[in-house]
Amino acid sequence: MLFLDTDPQPLVASIIAASGAATTYAIHCSPGTDPSDCGIAQGGTVTLAPSMYDFHLADPTSTLFDMSVHCQVSGTVPHLVHH
Fold this sequence. Notes:
Oligomer: single chain
Low-confidence stretches: none
Structural class: mainly beta
Number of domains: 1
């Protein structure tokens, strides 16, 4: 899974929903990891499908942090090969 603007970190994921080609995962720190070391202390969700990526991270104890990233691929771009 791709997490934009993050360092490598110890995470675990579990499937919380699946519909057609889309799967939604709950993301959390690995058990025994200090939450300040994993960067996703309060957890988040990621939904993946062949042409869609959706990431949501929020701190439920505060209104100060709420982050979402959504990417929808609607076409293709030819790949140019230079020789």
